[in-house]
Design a protein that fits this description.
By secondary structure, this protein is an alpha/beta fold. It has helices at about 15-25, 40-45, 45-70, 80-105, 155-160, 175-190, 210-220, 310-325, 355-360, 375-380, 410-420, 425-430; strands at about 5-10, 30-35, 110, 115-120, 120-125, 130-135, 140-145, 155, 170-175, 190-195, 225, 230-235, 240-245, 250-255, 255-260, 265, 300, 340, 345-350, 365-370, 385-390, 400-405, 450. It binds NADPH dihydro-nicotinamide-adenine-dinucleotide phosphate. NADPH dihydro-nicotinamide-adenine-dinucleotide phosphate binds near residues 176, 198, 204, 230 and 342.
């Protein structure tokens, strides 16, 4: 049977674009459909604009520190509109880069929505039908609001980059990556931020000692972080504001409310049921270790599979898919020991097991130190950082590394190499310290602070 294409990719985000380009480079005839903007969540409404906002927000502290270091600088006003104009110009540029990369790889782009009709056919919103030997679903995810009356009064993370003006006050709901990062960003840009998290401590699932420090630092920076609190009811107030009654009984009116309460796989109305593709309870596409669905010609990668919702993971899944399907080299996706960073202020960088998870698995030694870093201590700030290694007592292998510090994202990338290689505590100790740095503590911690 002959097909229009060897591969049809649905979704032009990080994972889909990479898979399309690499498959085309192998000589496959490839098409890709995207109904929004090329680049997807990461480039257009996620990691990239978020990180640029992190940079913008860090200047408020930098002005203060500069004065403490002897500079005669005055803090001016932050112009959201000036920043936003430049931000959108940058996103347009990046979108253009993605389009050129696909064009140069001879991938045919359809600026249209695609739905599956059967295991080898997609229907485009233009009415065209295309057939392909393989179909790759890479449609990502989207932010979700909690199911409650008035939830439509709140924004989600997609909306932040298009705000006409910055609000004076905002309530952020949630305690995950997005809530905690935007609490710090908006606080740094001068917005009065309140954050409600329903549980006992933000960033559930990560190392507790690291979470506690991030939480303390978020509070110290001026964010009104309220643990064990949530919205009970919300109603519209004057001038587009939102009146919130919290579960602790307090009542407050906020200019804006931001829900950062998780993301859902984008599988709605994709024709997956018609094609007989199995999905999980959250609507995620179920796949095996090769990203193959129960229908052999259909694969899925990235957030739509709800495995690990991170851009570099989607990219690796795309590469492994091409290796498996177009290079004849079956390659399972390695989801073990993925380093990641939460861009709070300070950042948290983490790889491997938390102290709690490691202790539940085997006897461990914990090496940790928390101290005031030289840079901000000199400027008169009370900031603290944390360097922590979780070590197996039996094998001496470092099971987890947790860093809370400015630049922790950069540090954990490199610590991740050693830990992925199976480094022991003694391997860390054999490395000479780089002095004076914060991360030198990772190779100079002599005695465990706790053992189990
Ligand atoms: P998360 O799943 O990380 O966090 C969702 C938060 O919302 C949790 O604190 C959760 O509480 C809370 N929540 C869920 N439902 C409700 C509700 N009904 N009422 C109140 N609170 C609720 O999702 P995010 O949206 O923050 O991020 C999605 C994913 O995006 C992340 O998992 C991450 O993989 C990725 N991401 C990565 C970034 C990075 O690498 N730096 C940055 C941003 C996103 P509870 O803990 O009690 O369940």
């Amino acid at each position: 049977m002959s097909f229009d294409y060897d591969l049809f990719v649905i979704g032009g985000g990080s994972g889909g674009v990479r898979a399309a380009r690499v498959a085309a480079a192998e000589g496959a005839k490839v098409a890709l459909a995207e109904d929004s903007r090329l680049g997807g969540t990461c480039v257009i409404r996620g990691c990239v604009p978020k990180k640029l906002m992190v940079f913008a927000s860090e200047y408020s502290g930098a002005f203060e520190d500069a004065r403490a270091y002897g500079w005669d600088v005055q803090e001016g006003d932050f112009s959201w509109s000036r920043f936003q104009t430049k931000l959108h110009a940058e996103l347009n540029r990046l979108e253009g880069v993605y389009r050129r990369l696909l064009d140069n790889s001879s991938v045919q782009i359809f600026d249209a929505r695609a739905k599956l009709k059967d295991p080898h056919t997609v229907v485009l919103s233009t009415g065209e039908e295309k057939t392909a030997k393989h179909i790759l679903i890479a449609t990502g995810g989207r932010p979700v609001r909690p199911p409650m009356d008035g939830a439509e009064l709140g924004m989600v993370s997609d909306d932040i980059f298009d705000l006409e003006t910055l609000p004076e006050t905002i309530l952020i709901v949630g305690g995950g990556y997005i809530a905690s990062e935007f609490a710090c960003i908006l606080n740094g840009l001068g917005v009065k931020v309140t954050q409600y998290y329903r549980g006992e401590q933000i960033l559930r699932g990560f190392d507790l000692e690291a979470r506690n420090l991030v939480s303390d630092m978020i509070k110290a920076s001026g964010v009104d972080l309220q643990l064990g609190n949530n919205i009970a009811t919300m109603t519209a107030a004057d001038g587009g504001a939102v009146h919130v009654v919290a579960t602790d009984g307090s009542e407050t009116t906020f200019d804006k409310v931001l829900f950062a309460t998780g993301r859902s796989p984008n599988t709605y109305d994709l024709g997956l049921e018609d094609a007989g593709i199995e999905m999980g309870l959250k609507g995620e596409v179920l796949v095996d270790e090769y990203s193959q669905t129960n229908i052999p010609s259909v694969y899925a990668i990235g957030d739509v599979t709800d495995r690990v919702q991170l851009t570099p993971v989607a990219i690796r899944e795309g590469m492994a898919f091409v290796e498996t399907v177009f290079k004849g080299n079956p390659t399972p996706v390695d989801h073990d020991l993925i380093p990641s960073a939460i861009f709070t202020q300070p950042e948290m960088g983490t790889v491997g097991l938390s102290e709690e998870d490691a202790a539940a698995q085997e006897p461990i030694e914990v090496y940790a130190t928390s101290f005031k870093p030289m840079n901000t201590a000199f400027a008169g700030r009370d900031d603290k950082v944390l360097m922590k290694l979780v070590v197996s007592k039996a094998t001496r292998v470092v099971l987890g590394c947790h860093i809370v510090a400015p630049g922790a994202g950069e540090m954990i990338q490199l610590a991740g190499v050693a830990i992925k290689m199976g480094a022991t505590k003694e391997d860390f100790d054999r490395v000479c310290a780089v002095h004076p740095t914060m991360s030198e503590e990772l190779v100079t911690m002599k005695a465990p602070v706790r053992t189990t």
